[in-house]
């Protein structure tokens, strides 16, 4: 498929079509021509103004579609399709198409379905307004409206059904999450702009091949959160990979993906992964932080992980705490581990205990729930050296021999 890309740039705005090109690539669409229009404000009925529409029309040869780097209103889509005579679509639709192609699990599929319906519903109503404007009191009007009303009802019904199904799937996952919480293992979540290297970093922490997740040079390679057991300085932890964010993420998607991102809300620590080889990486940081804020994630500690240093000259970004890594070359991972450990395990202390054999269950408990540094079977008791929080060790304080 071949496409023409169109973008409007407002005064003093620094924009480029690079990201829309990458979105096209992820959708297997070839970019044939690009038009950039400088304007004071967008045109309500044609987005770019009638003159520019005609200019584009003159350049249409065998392309299949025209893609606008923004979310068009239903009226604009209709007007532009009428004039240009080929498929007109927008950035939001493109993102939805990518998510559609990538969704593998039931949950991801339902989320996309919901996002699609949410995108379509106002469009149908917009089309209805458009029709009633155009056709006044003619007989056509009634029929058009009736059809739209039927479509609207059908979509609303499907939306309700999909939401219900999603709620059930989410409930199952919540139970899993609760079980994990009972285990009291710290949860670390990877967040960040799409293609920044979250999945690559996750894989760098996973020792076994069968644990590895998909990492790919493509926007939105990951759609479903995946959680793996890892160890940080021998402490067992859970690491969660999440869907990447993008500038101007369609709000239907944020809404639909809210449940997936619940995992982020419950994490004890966030690793905010940044592709430092991107010139506009600061904008990516801000986008990610905005999405996090909109999810209500405000107090969770964050480590800024500047990735892909193998591609770059040195940078000194302002955020703290931060580390510089190359997930691909596994460089800087020790520093990252130290930083994680510093935040998650700062109130852990070393305790030495002597547990009499008759209280063997205390030994079993500590052995399973704490980081055991060393243990020995002595004549009258079991000696155990553990790293634990004061709170955890408090019930067994009578056994402490050294702290
Ligand atoms: N040069 C270089 N490339 C990297 C590095 N880390 C990741 N990449 C590449 O960047 C691309 C994206 O990596 P992913 O790990 O899939 O990125 P992601 O953040 O999970 O992306 P989404 O799942 O789409 O949000 C892949 O082609 C990786 O090989 C790095 O340290 N250096
Ligand atoms: Mg990924």
Report on the structure:
With 403 residues, the chain is of the alpha/beta class. It has four domains: 2-99, 3-Layer(aba) Sandwich (Rossmann fold), CATH 3.40.50; 103-168; 185-344, P-loop containing nucleotide triphosphate hydrolases (Rossmann fold, 3-Layer(aba) Sandwich); 348-402, no CATH class. 44% of the residues lie in helices and 22% in strands. It is built from twelve helices and 14 strands. The protein has helices spanning 18-26, 50-59, 74-84, 91-102, 106-135, 139-182, 198-205, 251-265, 281-294, 333-344, 360-369, 390-393, and strands at residues 2-9, 30-38, 65-68, 87-90, 187-192, 226-232, 235-241, 269-275, 302-307, 322-324, 348-356, 371-377, 381-389, 400-402. Strands 6-7-5-8-9-10 form a six-stranded mixed beta sheet, with helices on both faces. Strands 2-1-3-4 form a four-stranded parallel beta sheet, with helices on both faces. Helix 3 links the parallel strand 3 (65-68) and strand 4 (87-90). The radius of gyration is 27 Å and the shape is elongated. The termini are far apart. The chain binds guanosine-5'-triphosphate (GTP) and magnesium ion (MG). Residues 192, 194-200, 215-217, 219-222, 244, 307-308, 310-311, 326-328 line the site of guanosine-5'-triphosphate.
């Amino acid at each position: 498929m071949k496409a023409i890309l169109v973008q409007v740039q407002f005064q003093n705005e620094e924009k480029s079509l690079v990201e829309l090109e990458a979105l096209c690539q992820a959708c297997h669409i070839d970019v044939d021509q690009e038009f950039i229009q400088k304007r004071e404000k967008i045109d309500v009925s044609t987005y770019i103004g009638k003159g520019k529409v005609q200019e584009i029309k003159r350049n249409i040869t065998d392309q299949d579609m025209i893609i606008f780097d923004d979310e068009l209103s239903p009226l604009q889509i209709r007007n532009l399709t009428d004039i240009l005579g080929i498929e007109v679509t927008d950035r939001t639709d493109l993102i939805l198409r990518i998510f559609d192609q990538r969704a593998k699990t039931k949950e991801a599929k339902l989320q996309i379905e919901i996002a699609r319906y949410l995108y379509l519903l106002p469009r149908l109503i917009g089309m209805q307004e458009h029709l009633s404007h155009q056709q006044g009191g003619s007989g056509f009007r009634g029929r058009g409206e009736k059809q739209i009303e039927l479509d609207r009802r059908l979509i609303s019904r499907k939306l309700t059904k999909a939401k219900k199904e999603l709620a059930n799937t989410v409930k199952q996952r919540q139970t899993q999450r609760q079980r994990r919480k009972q285990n009291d293992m710290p949860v670390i979540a990877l967040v960040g702009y799409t293609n920044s290297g979250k999945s690559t970093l996750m894989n760098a922490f996973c020792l076994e091949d069968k644990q590895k997740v998909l990492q790919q040079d493509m926007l939105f390679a990951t759609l479903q959160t995946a959680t793996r057991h890892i160890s940080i300085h021998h402490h067992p932890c859970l690491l969660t990979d999440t869907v990447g964010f993008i500038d101007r993420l369609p709000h239907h998607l944020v809404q639909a993906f809210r449940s997936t991102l619940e995992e982020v809300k419950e994490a004890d620590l966030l690793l905010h992964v940044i592709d430092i080889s991107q010139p506009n990486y600061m904008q990516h940081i801000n986008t990610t932080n905005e999405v996090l804020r909109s999810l209500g994630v405000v107090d969770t500690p964050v480590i800024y992980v500047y990735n892909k240093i193998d591609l770059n000259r040195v940078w000194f970004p302002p955020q703290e705490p931060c580390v510089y890594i190359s997930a691909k070359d596994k460089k800087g991972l020790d520093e990252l581990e130290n930083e994680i450990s510093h935040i998650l395990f700062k109130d852990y202390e070393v305790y030495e205990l002597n547990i009499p054999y008759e209280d063997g269950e205390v030994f079993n408990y500590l052995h399973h729930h704490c980081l055991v540094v060393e243990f020995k079977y002595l004549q009258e008791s079991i000696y155990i050296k553990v790293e634990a929080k004061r709170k955890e060790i408090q019930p067994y304080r009578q056994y402490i021999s050294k702290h």
